[in-house]
Amino acid sequence: MEIVEFRPEMAAGLARCYNDLVADVPHCYPVSVEAFSSMERLASANCHDEALLAAREEGEVAGFVHVGIANPPKFDWHPQGEPGVIRFLSYRPGQRQIGTALLEAAEKWARERGRGEIFGWNSLYAYPFYHLFHANLSDRLGHLHSLFGKAGYQPDWGEVFFDWTGFVPPAVPMPALNFDLEVERQEKPEHERNQTVVKALHNGEEIGRCIMLRLGEVLPRPDGREWSFCDWLGVNEPLQGRGLGKFLLAQSLVEMQRAGCKHAAISTSHQNYRAYLFYTNFGFNFCDRTTSFRKQLENLALTAEDAETCPEPAEGAQRRIFGWPPEPSAPLFRWAGP
Ligand SMILES: CC(C)(COP(=O)(O)OP(=O)(O)OC[C@H]1O[C@@H](n2cnc3c(N)ncnc32)[C@H](O)[C@@H]1OP(=O)(O)O)[C@@H](O)C(=O)NCCC(=O)NCCS
């Protein structure tokens, strides 16, 4: 097995690896070879200096990792300090050596560029054709969760997804609050998307808002025009718990239905139990849980001086690189016999 940098002739193999990996992941659709035809086509607006490292076995692409350096943060919840990022990692379940080799190659790549930290599968850097907005690594990809965990990555952010095919907006009574409702269609070329914003205004001041996207306008998916996605729902804190959130969400779904949407999706942090309860009671169904990861990278770069004083490994001794191969561990249980 060899690890090589992206070459256009790998496009078909890369697309096959991507499509095989996401075949059972909700809201993912197969992409054409075109999607992997150049690094420019795959480039993210949120990172730079990207590289795609592919594992090849007997000339075939057996997996790949896509890395980059995060752009400076725009918000305080963005990864700080321009860390290395793993945008995507693909290998077949059961081929752990390939997954591990790719992960090590990604970490080495980041370390060589002076990065002290690496983020794995943060939605900010995800492929535009992967899953829904804000989606990190899907729980359906258990072998990748395990790979990151075994390699010392910590979960960083969890996002839970709900969807509702053939949604029927429930009749929600107007809350006993003094407010006006305003629906605004916003063109957002800077974010390459348009959005419908349903606002509650009290004396002209906004007290709650619901932002809806039509997926077909922002994601390359075949049924995108039929899907709406709630990108944000918020009510001013003193007014929470009085029915306004529910009313705004119901009104927003009515708006999206008028615009031709038949299905709806929404997400929230995995620890936002209030929203979790709200969305499931409202009519949405749990569909996926996704996680992003992060890891501090120890600096293993040797100075010339270190190299002189560092003894060569004894002949035949295998050097452990970044935790792989794993140290032999005690068996979890022993068969005591009948
Ligand atoms: C989540 C949020 C939008 C809900 O709006 P709200 O006006 O407070 O909620 P509502 O009064 O309309 O209640 C809607 C549902 O939320 C849940 N809920 C509301 N208050 C709750 C509480 N104190 N404890 C648990 N669940 C609660 C209930 O399921 C409720 O439905 P029900 O009344 O039929 O039981 C609002 O609390 C908010 O802005 N939170 C901060 C931002 C946020 O978390 N946004 C959503 C994630 S993207």
Structure commentary:
By secondary structure, the chain is of the alpha+beta class. It folds into 2 domains: 2-159 and 292-296, Aminopeptidase (3-Layer(aba) Sandwich); 180-261, Aminopeptidase, CATH 3.40.630.30. Helices cover 23% and strands 32% of the residues. The protein contains 8 helices and 13 strands. Strands 1, 2, 3, 4, 5, 6, 7, 8, 9, 10, 11, 12 and 13 form a 13-stranded mixed sheet that branches. A hairpin with a 4-residue loop joins β8 and β9. The two termini are 43 Å apart. 33% of the residues are buried. Residues 309-338 have low confidence and may be disordered. The structure holds coenzyme A (COA). Coenzyme A (COA) binds at residues 232-235, 240-246, 268, 272, 274-275, 277-278, 281.
Fraction in helix: 10-25%
**Could you tell me the mean pLDDT?**
88
Order of SSEs: EHHEEEHEEHEEEEHEHEHEH
Sheet-strand content, in percent, reads: 25-35%
Tell me about the biggest sheet? 13 strands, mixed
Number of strands: 13
- Secondary structure category: alpha+beta
Provide a short characterization of the protein structure:
This protein is α+β, with helices and mostly antiparallel strands and 338 residues long. It is 23% helix and 32% strand.
